[in-house]
C-alpha cells in the first residue's frame, strides 16, 4: 500500500468531539488493562509495539498516557538512541533482538530498528546496497518474531512541521521541559522532507508482517484514543482466555 503523508491530516477530524472521545479513551484504557492481564496470564503470545515519528512527535507522551493503566509487571519500554561503539561492533539488529518480548509481555519500542534505515539514508552514511539489505533483514526479522508468537503493531505519529516547531520551542523555553531538549531536535528538523520520503519508502517495503498505522498526532487526546483503540482491537482478536485453575491436592 502506498502512503503519502502529505495527503493525511495531522489533526483530529472536525466531526470528532473532544470530550466524548476522551470518555471513549478511558473505556478503551480500562479494556487494555484487562486484556494485558489475559496476555500475561496465558503466556501464549507476546506483543511488540513500535513507535516512530519525527522529533517531538509525542512518543514519550504516548507511552505515558496509553499505558498508564497497564500492570508494570507485564510491560517493558526500550528507547533506542544513537548506537554505541559496542553496538556498532555487532550486526545492527542485535541491540534490537535482545529487547524483544517474552511470551505474556508487551514490549514498547520508542524508536526501533527503522532508525538504522532512516538516519543512514538521510545523512548518506551507508550505501544504497547496504540499506536495501537492512530492509530485507528487518522484514525477515519481523516475520521470524511473528511466526514465533509475537504480534507486532507499528505506529507512525504524524505531526505537522508547525506543531513540531512549537513543541521544540517549548523544550527550549519551558523550564519543566528543558531537560528534554537536544540540539539535534533543531538541526534534524531541517531534513523534514528527506525524512518524510524515507518513511514513505519504509511503509511500502515493510508491511509484509505488520502494516503501519499513521496516527494524526497534533492533538494528543486523539492520538492517545486512536492508538489505544488499535491495540485493544488487536488484543481482542487474539481470543485469549485465562488458563485453567491448577488442581488442588
What would you note in describing this structure?
The structure is a single chain. With 249 residues, this protein is of the alpha/beta class. The chain has a single domain (5-236), classed as 3-Layer(aba) Sandwich (Rossmann fold), CATH 3.40.50.300. Helices cover 48% and strands 13% of the residues. The chain is built from ten helices and five strands. It has a five-stranded parallel beta sheet, with helices on both faces. It starts with 17 loop residues before the first helix and ends in a 13-residue tail after the last helix.
Secondary-structure map:
Blueprint (H helix, E strand, L loop, with lengths): L17 H25 L3 E8 L5 H8 L8 E5 L5 H4 L5 H4 L8 E5 L4 H8 L5 H20 L2 E9 L2 H13 L9 H7 L2 H14 L6 E5 L3 H17 L13
Parallel strand pairs: 1-3, 1-4, 2-3, 4-5
Helix pairs in contact: 1-10, 2-10, 5-6, 5-9
At the first level of CATH, the class is Alpha Beta
Largest sheet: 5 strands, parallel
**Beta strands, count:** 5
Beta-strand fraction estimate: 5-15%
Strand order of the largest sheet: 2-3-1-4-5
CATH architectural grouping: 3-Layer(aba) Sandwich
CATH superfamily: P-loop containing nucleotide triphosphate hydrolases
Q: Helix/strand-derived class?
A: alpha/beta
**Alpha-carbon distance between the two ends:** 56 Å
Number of helices: 10
Mean pLDDT over all positions = 96
Radius of gyration: 19 Å
Amino acid at each position: 500500500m502506498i502512503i503519502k503523508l502529505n495527503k493525511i491530516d495531522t489533526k483530529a477530524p472536525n466531526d470528532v468531539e473532544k470530550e466524548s472521545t476522551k470518555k471513549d479513551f478511558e473505556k478503551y484504557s480500562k479494556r487494555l488493562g484487562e486484556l494485558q492481564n489475559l496476555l500475561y496470564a496465558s503466556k501464549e503470545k507476546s506483543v511488540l509495539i513500535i513507535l516512530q515519528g519525527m522529533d517531538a512527535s509525542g512518543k514519550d507522551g504516548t507511552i505515558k498516557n496509553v499505558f498508564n493503566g497497564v500492570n508494570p509487571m507485564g510491560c517493558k519500554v526500550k528507547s533506542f538512541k544513537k548506537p554505541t561503539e559496542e553496538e556498532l561492533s555487532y550486526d545492527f539488529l542485535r541491540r534490537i533482538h535482545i529487547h524483544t518480548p517474552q511470551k505474556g509481555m508487551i514490549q514498547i519500542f520508542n524508536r526501533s530498528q527503522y532508525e538504522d534505515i532512516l538516519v543512514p539514508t538521510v545523512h548518506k552514511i551507508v550505501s544504497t546496497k547496504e540499506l536495501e539489505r537492512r530492509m530485507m533483514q528487518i522484514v525477515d526479522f519481523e516475520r521470524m518474531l511473528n511466526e514465533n508468537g509475537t504480534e507486532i503493531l507499528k505506529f507512525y505519529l504524524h505531526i505537522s512541521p508547525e506543531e513540531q516547531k512549537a513543541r521544540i520551542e517549548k523544550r527550549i523555553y519551558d523550564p519543566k521541559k528543558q531537560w528534554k531538549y537536544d540540539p539535534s531536535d533543531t538541526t534534524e528538523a531541517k531534513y523534514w522532507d528527506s525524512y518524510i520520503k524515507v518513511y514513505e519508502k519504509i511503509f511500502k517495503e515493510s508491511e509484509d508482517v505488520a502494516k503501519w498505522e499513521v496516527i494524526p498526532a497534533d492533538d494528543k487526546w486523539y492520538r492517545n484514543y486512536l492508538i489505544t483503540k488499535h491495540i485493544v482491537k488487536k488484543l481482542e482478536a487474539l481470543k485469549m482466555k485465562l488458563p485453567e485453575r491448577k488442581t488442588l491436592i
